[in-house]
Amino acid sequence: MPRTVDVDAQISQKTLSLWGTADDTLPEELDPRELWWRDRYKQLSHRGYLLRPRYSPQWAPSWKTSNRDWLDSEDGKRLKYGQVIDATRTSDRKPVTLKRFKRGDHQYEADIALYFSSQAFASHPANHCVPVYEVFTLDAEDDTVIMVMPLLRLYNDPVFDTIGEAMECFRQLFEGLQFMHKHRVAHRDCMNRNIMLDPTDLYPESFHPVATNLNKDCSGNAKHFTRTERPPKYYFIDFGISRRYDPSVTDPKEIPIWGGDKEVPEFQNSNEPCDPFATDVFYVGNAIKMDFVLERRGFEFMKPLISSMIQADPDKRPKMDEVVTQFDEVLRRLSRRKLRSRVVDIHEDLFERVVRTTSHWKRRIGFIARGVPAIPSPPS
Hints:
31% of the residues lie in helices and 12% in strands. It is an alpha+beta fold. A five-stranded antiparallel β-sheet has the order 2-3-4-6-5.
């Protein structure tokens, strides 16, 4: 049997010793994952990062003295992932994300993240690696490091309104992966859950970091614009298994290591070292296939390019330079009418379709009248 490494399985095995697990604790009790952060609340505060009230040592559940149910209360929201927590940077009230990990387990993550956040690359428009504000440790004797990043959202939330919005997303993803490869970094896990967007303009009043469909105090839905009105920038996150190669290493090979996408052809029945850059091409192509080509109507024109990116033989997949060139050709052939057409979920029922189509056309007429471009571009 091949001995392909499964990162998710490794993390699951380490969960008990590193992060704790979410057990059947009561809402007013912190689970073991949360206790780690609660116990470092003051240290993080002194460092300039304020956690939500739930993680203060003085926290008392708000629903005990209010008429709200704990499910509707802001401080009733647990962490989704024990190694990641939201916080507020006290110097400017900016919402941020704190991620903790053992440097010994992910020895290259901080270095690669900081490499792309360096002065040389931070402002480059083709750089779509998540910005990292700082990396620090709380205990000199501990191998755990904390990385500070902006608060982001999954790249497909909220839903895409138009084909043009999706095409701008694809363009940025291809551009970003091309930029990484140009600088000899293979992401090695750039599947859909590791693609995010900057919500700053889309959600000007922000949102709750756990219940992301709600506003910050969970009193109602989080209000947002469409991507056409407020174009976001998309980012790749999580460089835990990424690698950076010296330019002299022209043909790097890596033993297969499973990320979140379990469909990589070259990993299925072999543990032979393979090209990590070709695997990246598969990952991002498969993300678009799974989230758009298969789940949304109207993306048939992307099938030839996506099919070439996810073909079984990694040697036959295009390099990212070729992907970008071919994508530009596809984009040039699309009419403005096509670009302004609505993204239709294949699972929509008739009622949803009527409601969404009606609201879409109202927006569309307004955008055309105001001269809003069919392909939104984020501010540089």
